[in-house]
Amino acid sequence: xxxxxxxxxxxxxxxxxxxxxxxxxxxxxxxxxxxxxxxxxxxxxxxxxxxxxxxxxxxxxxxxxxxxxxxxxxxxxxxxxxxxxxxxxxxxxxxxxxxxxxxxxxxxxxxxxxxxxxxxxxxxxxxxxxxxxxxxxxxxxxxxxxxxxxxxxxxxxxxxxxxxxxxxxxxxxxxxxxxxxxxxxxxxxxxxxxxxxxxxxxxxxxxxxxxxxxxxxxxxxxxxxxxxxxxxxxxxxxxxxxxxxxxxxxxxxxxxxxxxxxxxxxxxxxxxxxxxxxxxxxxxxxxxxxxxxxxxxxxxxxxxxxxxxxxxxxxxxx
Amino acid sequence: xxxxxxxxxxxxxxxxxxxxxxxxxxxxxxxxxxxxxxxxxxxxxxxxxxxxxxxxxxxxxxxxxxxxxxxxxxxxxxxxxxxxxxxxxxxxxxxxxxxxxxxxxxxxxxxxxxxxxxxxxxxxxxxxxxxxxxxxxxxxxxxxxxxxxxxxxxxxxxxxxxxxxxxxxxxxxxxxxxxxxxxxxxxxxxxxxxxxxxxxxxxxxxxxxxxxxxxxxxxxxxxxxxxxxxxxxxxxxxxxxxxxxxxxxxxxxxxxxxxxxxxxxxxxxxxxxxxxxxxxxxxxxxxxxxxxxxxxxxxxxxxxxxxxxxxxxxxxxxxxxxxxxxxxxxxxxxxxxxxxxxxxxxxxxxxxxxxxxxxxxxxxxxxxxxxxxxxxxxxxxxxxxxxxxxxxxxxxxxxxxxxxxxxxxxxxx
Lengths: 318, 413
Description:
- Chain A contains eleven helices and seven strands.
- Chain A is an alpha+beta fold and about 325 residues long.
- In chain A, strands 1-7-2-4-5-6-3 form a seven-stranded antiparallel sheet, sandwiched between helices.
- In chain A, helix 1 (about 15-25) packs across helix 9 and helix 8 (about 225-240) runs antiparallel to helix 9.
- Chain B is an alpha+beta fold and about 425 residues long.
- Among the domains of chain B are: about 20-130, PH-domain like, CATH 2.30.29.70; about 270-375, Orthogonal Bundle (uronate isomerase, domain 2, chain A), CATH 1.10.2020.
- The interface between A and B is large, with 56 and 72 residues.
- Chain B: InterPro entries: DEUBAD_dom, Rpn13/ADRM1, Rpn13/ADRM1_Pru, Rpn13/ADRM1_Pru_sf, RPN13_DEUBAD, RPN13_DEUBAD_sf.
C-alpha cells in the first residue's frame, strides 16, 4: 500500500484533462472548455456527459438542491481526501457515472468502480487517494517543480475547488468532494436536455461569484468528436450517394476530423512541454548569448525599459 | 566675464546670470577622536557658492575659488534630490551641508564666509528653495560652466538646441548616475519645508569649529537612505528627460547604461522571459542549434528537431519556466543549481547575490574566454581535417580517412 505519497497540482486545462482521461484508458471522451451556457454553445457539444466547475473555494457557501444522504440512485460519489487530487477526483466522479454507449471506461477504472462499489463516500475517497496508478497518472501532468524554492507565486492555485455536475438516472446531481453526500438538483423532464436543468444552478453560482470577483472555469466532458465525425463520414461513404451535397458533407467532415486531430496533437505537445524541465535549455541559451556578448545588453535593455516606464508613470508632464 | 563676487542685495539677482550666490568655504569630514565620531575640518580658502540654471532647466550648484577664480565644483541638482541643511552641532550656526538623498551618499560641507550673519537664514532658505523648486523660466544667456571642459549644462544645452556637440557619453559618471538614479528611485519632490529643510542631526557636543560630531544612526557620517514614504510627482519636464534618454541612444547606438556600483542602485525585478524573448534570441538560437536541441523535450509527439527549437521560445511553457527561473535567480537561491551546470564560480556568486545583471556580466566574461579557446581548437581541428583530406586525395579513392569502424563493412563507391 502507499504511504503519504504526494499528489501534485496539475493545470486545469482541457488538453491536460483529455489526455489524463485517455491515459486512464477511457475511450470516447474529450474535454472542452466552455465560455457560455447559452443553448447555441451546446449545439456542437451535445451529448454532454458531465460538467466540471472550477472555482475558488469559500467555506460554508450556500447551496441549492438537496443533500442526498441515502444515495437512492446509487450514484458513484467519492469524498475528497487530498486537496491536490481534486481535479482527478472530480473527473473520476464524473466518469464513473457516465452511461452513454459512446464512452468506454477501460479496465483500470472499471476495476476501481467495482472494487469500491460497496464503500461509502469517505472510503471511496481514501481508496482513490491510495491508488498508486491513478496518482502516478495524475502526477505525470504536474507542473515542473524545477527546484524546491520559496517563490511567492504559489498561493495562486491554493483553494481552487472542483465540482462535478452529472446527469444520472434521470436526475441532475452535483458531486462536491467536500460535502458529505451528492446534491440532488431535481429530475430531468422527459425529452429535455439535462443542461437546461443545470444551467440556472450554475448561473446562480456564477452570479454569486462575479459580485465577489472570483475566478472560475467551466469544462464539459463530451463524446470524442473524431469518433463522431468519422462515424458520420463512414455512413456517408457507405451510402454511396454521389450528390454534390454528399461530396460537400464528406469534405466538411474530413476537415472537421483533421481539425480535431490537429487540436489533439497540439494538446499533446503542450503536455509534453509542461512536463519538460527547461532549466538546462535556459542555462545553455544564456551561455550562448553570453558567448555572443548579447546577454548583458539584453538584460540592461529590460532594466532600462522598466525604469523608463517608471519615469513616465511618476513624473508630471510640465 | 563680469565680476562675480560682489555681495548682492538680498532681493535682487546678481547681474551675472547667477540665480543666487553667497560666500562660502568648503569643509570636509575627517576621522574623529572615537570611531563613531567625525571631525569637520574647514578649508580656509575663500570661495563662492553660486547657483545657476542651465538652458534646459537643470539646476547647477557651483563652488568657485575666489583666490584663483576657478570653479572647482559643478554639481547638477535634481529637484527633491538634495537638502541644504544647517549643521546643528556647529555652534556658530554657519556650517551647512548639501546632502544628496537618492543619487549618492555625497555630502558637501560649506561654511559661510560673509562677514555679516544677516543673510544666513535667507541663504539657507533660498538655496533649498532654488534647488528643489527650480524656476520654470529658462534664463537665456546664462551659459553654465566657466571652464572649457564639457559640463552637463553645455551638453544638455547643445542637445536642446539640436547642435552637434559632445555626446551625453561625455557626461561624467557622477552626472549620469544622478540622472538615472533619479529615474530609478522615482521619488522626489518639491518638498518644501518651512524651516528650509533643516533636519535634526544627532545631538553632539558643542565644540567650536572644527567640531566633533557624534555619528549615530542619523549622524553625519552615515549614509542616510531615507526616502519620502510616498513618491511625489516632481516637476522635471518628462519630455526633457525622455529627450535626453533618446538622444543618448541615438548618438551611441545603445541605451544609456546604469552604473551598477552605486550602492543606492536598486535592482528591479526582471522578468527573464522578457530578456529571452523571440526577437532577442532567434538569431542566437539559429546559430547554436546543436548545443540547444539536445535540451529539448524528446517525447512523442515532440522530437528534438528544428521545428520544435524554433517554436520553443514562444511557448507559454518555456516563458513560464524562464520567468520562474529568473525570479528564483533574483532571490539569490540559484547558486547551487547553477553550479551543476558548469557555470563558473564568479557567475555562481553573482547568482547567489540575486543580481541578474551581474550574473550576465560574469557569465559573459567566462563564456567569451572559453570562446577564444574553442575557436583555437576549432581552427586546429579544421586544419587537421584539411590535411587529412589532402592526404587521402593523394593516396587514392580507396578508403576514406577518419571514418568510424561502422564504415568498415560498407560498400565503397
